[in-house]
Amino acid sequence: MRRTERFPVEGANSLWHVYKTVPFWKVVKNFIIIQLARYTPVLGMKNWLYRTFLGMNVGQQTSFALMVMLDVMFPEKISVGRNTVIGYNTTILAHEYLIKEYRLGEVRIGSEVMIGANSTILPGVVIGDGAIVSAGTLVHKDVPAGSFVGGNPMRVIYTPEQLAQRWADDPIYGGKGQSGGHV
């Protein structure tokens, strides 16, 4: 289950209440900064913009590829560890506006994480250190540290323990494996 805080609304759908939940000028400023960062190829500048103007916690040597789209309304709820790669055209959301309510949730992405291109990360999830998220994945729940996940809906493809066992059984990686080797 994602960790989101729920805020019910009455009358029109929750998006019609958006400027009661976040100031208009904050959204305008965030939009300009995010659009500037989406198109700049200078990784250090992107991280500086995110830290300085959006209030994000971004670790050293973290790389946001071109066209990454951060939450325009609540980017300060996103944190990314050190030496992580966020792939091309990935979307990271910290809010969701629904019909009868809106939800807010922090997104915490660990260190040494690889997020594949065109992935979407929903609010309220934690992606553990060393995790790998396959391209095109909808991350709708937590990703355990060191795991490889993918798909829509997202599923665990293997855990660190399963990977260690594969390597132990594979003669290419020094394991015993089966006789005959690989083709």
From TrEMBL:
InterPro entries: Hexapep, Trans_hexapeptide_repeat, Trimer_LpxA-like_sf. It comes from the Bacteria. Pfam families: Hexapep. The lineage of its organism: Bacteria, Bacillati, Bacillota, Bacilli, Bacillales. It comes from Neobacillus notoginsengisoli. SUPFAM superfamilies: Trimeric LpxA-like enzymes. GO terms for molecular function: acyltransferase activity. The keyword Nucleus does not apply. This is Acyltransferase. Keywords: Acyltransferase, Transferase.
